UniProtKB/TrEMBL annotation, chain A:
Gene3D superfamilies linked: MetI-like
Primary location recorded for the protein, binned into one broad class: membrane
A Pfam family matched in the record: BPD_transp_1
Disordered: annotated segments: 1-38
Segments passing through the bilayer: 54-82, 117-137, 149-169, 193-218, 239-260, 294-314
Name assigned to this protein: ABC transporter permease
One Gene Ontology cellular component: plasma membrane
Gene Ontology terms describing biological process: transmembrane transport
InterPro entries xrefs: MetI-like, MetI-like_sf
Cellular location(s): Cell membrane
Domain of life: Bacteria
UniProtKB/TrEMBL annotation, chain B:
Protein family membership: Belongs to the binding-protein-dependent transport system permease family. CysTW subfamily.
UniProt KW Membrane keyword: yes
Domain ABC transmembrane type-1: 65-255
Any one cellular-component term (Gene Ontology): plasma membrane
Keywords, comma-separated and alphabetical: Cell membrane, Membrane, Transmembrane, Transmembrane helix, Transport
Membrane topology: Multi-pass membrane protein
Record-given protein name: ABC transporter permease
Biological process terms in GO annotation: transmembrane transport
Location(s) in or outside the cell: Cell membrane
Transmembrane portions of the chain: 12-34, 64-88, 100-120, 132-154, 190-214, 234-255
InterPro entries referenced in this protein's UniProt entry, alphabetically: Bact_Polyamine_Transport, MetI-like, MetI-like_sf
Length: 324, 267
């Protein structure tokens, strides 16, 4: 921003244009000459030193995010290489690969990792399958008025509490809940609490996060392209496949980043509707709390971090990251 | 591409069905809060206001509301200050590392809550040796609330342009005066919207909270979680859940209206 740096000069020019004989010497008509207070001097200094201004603006937020967040994340990585004295329960700050080896080779961790990734993948597939038609309807079929209403209808549950939504599914899926009541006449029954319930609930929780980027992506596909395709004889499906899908792919992938990474780290939903099943998050939580083994918890937490960064790395060339 | 009437109708029906699925569970919670059954039975055998009365008389629930409000207010104020500073820096300046900083702002909400949670837990307890308290929750919440303020303020700054600020500077106003009289009034509604979103986000956050709250700190979501598995507490939990939805949706609704002309992004 160069505007403030040049401001005093242009102010002087304006003054001298008004009173050509006395450039800057006499007070301008109606505008009192600013007093030379320390605040004024600081202000002048700042407006001629944009870098200082930038540094002052950035200092507090960077201090906060840097210290509280980045340092914490890095230290989490470091902690994974420490251990806990099994006798005193204190953390020993000596480098060891034990936790990493335990996590990589322990059959419990392998099973739970596979289960968690499987759940996250299924949740993502379900969400995309649900989000595509609703996003398409919102962006390309609905009238402007309808579009606004639908957007609010989709956004409102996004803001309802995570916990309330998980609890709502606990009610829906309970032994004499509404699901049982609805399907019992047809010989069905509620899936009860378990992995299917976890998948349903997680898919429900993240659905708005998937709909929104896909909707925004479809909105950006100009109608003229669809018309051009139709004029050239393109039927609905070929147009969808060759025009709409390639253009919205980054947005779809952006949506999958949300559902995939949020599912990977979840542990409360599986507590509420998952029965006795464990996901990676549960193992982390148990080791932070009851088992009091932070280094092991940190090592387990590295699994979802590695998977998420791997996924981000895979999709970085699709432009999905700009659609978040 | 011209969609046939049939495919338009099909899409419409599918959309309607999905919205029904989205709303039914929330509706069930609402109805359950008036049900005479204590075990989430559907259809409700009868209706009563007993649970609403009990919930409002429950000292634990009221205390939890108070704790949540306190945390949300302080976290919102901190995130308003930090979010405004960082959006001014990122929108008005071009410098090396700008993209990295904008990623840094989004990171606390982009990474799963459990990672933010355990990182902060580890940072406070192991590294700093600070016992978990209400303040550790505030710090954690402020960290991920910055992004909602940031999104709102930077969108507004982008739309505002710099011409009014330049005019102000040309007329001799200093840096502070320009901010106070020109920039801030234009940012006001964006700040309010961002602040409301931050408040709602903090008010019902659970995952990071479970990792950063001291043993004596019970926020409303923690209260729900603690009581959910207790026999016969289900109706009271439903009442609190309904209250939680209302408390978070009203500010969100206001925020959406305030920033309806700004490009809104989901955090």
């Amino acid at each position: 921003m160069t505007m403030n740096a040049t401001a005093p000069a242009s102010a002087r020019n304006a003054a001298s244009a008004l009173e050509p004989g006395t450039p800057g010497a006499s007070p301008r008509a109606g505008v009192p000459r600013p007093k030379r207070t320390p605040a004024r001097r600081a202000s002048v200094f700042l407006s001629t030193h944009p870098r200082t201004r930038l540094a002052l603006l950035l200092a507090a937020p960077l201090f906060w995010l840097g210290i509280v967040y980045i340092v914490a994340l890095v230290l989490l990585l470091v902690t994974a290489f420490w251990s806990v004295d099994s006798f005193t329960g204190e953390i020993t700050q000596e480098w060891t690969l034990d936790n990493i080896v335990t996590v990589l080779t322990g059959s419990l961790y392998q099973t739970v990792t596979l289960r968690t990734v499987g759940v996250a993948l299924l949740v993502t597939i379900i969400d995309v399958a649900f989000a595509l038609p609703i996003a398409f309807f919102m962006a390309k079929v609905a009238s402007r008025r309808m579009q606004r209403i639908l957007l609010i209808a989709v956004l409102t549950p996004l803001w309802a509490s995570y916990l309330v939504k998980a609890y709502a599914w606990r009610s829906v899926l309970s032994q004499d809940g509404i699901w049982e009541w609805l399907v019992a006449p047809f010989g069905g029954s509620t899936p009860g609490y378990g992995l299917p319930a976890t998948i349903i609930t997680l898919a429900y929780l993240w659905l708005p996060y998937v709909i929104l980027p896909i909707y925004a992506g479809l909105e950006r596909v100009p109608d003229s392209l669809l018309e051009a395709s139709a004029d050239l004889g393109g039927k609905t499906w070929p147009t969808l496949r060759h025009v709409v899908l390639p253009l919205t792919m980054p947005a779809i992938i952006a949506g999958t980043i949300f559902s995939f990474s949020l599912s990977l780290g979840d542990y409360i939903t599986v507590n509420i509707v998952g029965g006795a099943n464990q996901m990676l998050g549960n193992l982390v939580y148990t080791n932070v709390g009851a088992a009091n083994n932070l280094p092991l918890a940190a090592a387990i937490a590295l699994i979802p971090i590695a998977i998420i960064f791997g996924y981000l790395f895979l999709v970085r060339r699709t432009g999905a990251l700009d659609n978040l | 591409m011209r969609l046939s009437r049939l495919s338009r109708t099909t899409l419409g029906v599918v959309t309607a069905l999905i919205l029904v699925i989205v709303y039914v569970p929330l509706f069930v919670v609402l109805v359950n809060s008036f049900s005479t059954s204590t075990s989430l039975t559907w259809p409700p055998p009868g209706f009563t206001l007993e649970w609403w009365q009990k919930a409002f008389q429950s000292a634990g629930a009221m205390e939890a509301v108070l704790t949540s409000v306190q945390i949300a207010i302080i976290a919102t104020l901190v995130s308003l200050a930090l979010g405004t500073l960082i959006s001014l820096a990122l929108q008005r300046f071009d410098f090396f590392g700008r993209d990295a900083i904008s990623l840094l702002v989004i990171l606390p909400i982009a990474l799963p809550g459990i990672i933010t949670g355990i990182a902060l837990n580890n940072f406070f307890r192991t590294i700093m040796g600070v016992p978990l308290s209400i303040w550790t929750v505030v710090i954690a919440h402020a960290t991920f609330c910055i992004v909602t303020v940031f999104n709102n303020v930077i969108a507004r700054l982008r739309r505002m342009g710099t011409s009014l600020e330049e005019a102000s500077a040309d007329l001799g106003a200093g840096v502070w005066t320009t901010f106070r009289l020109v920039t801030f009034p234009q940012l006001r509604s964006a700040l309010l919207a961002g602040g409301l979103l931050a408040f709602a986000l903090s008010f019902d956050e659970i995952i990071v909270t479970t990792f950063t709250a001291g043993s004596g700190v019970t926020t409303l979501p923690i209260f729900i979680l603690n009581n959910m598995f207790r026999p016969n507490q289900a109706p009271i939990v439903s009442v609190i859940a309904v209250v939680l939805v209302l408390v978070s949706i009203i500010p969100i609704y206001l925020a959406q209206r305030l920033s309806s002309d700004t490009e809104q992004k989901a955090p």
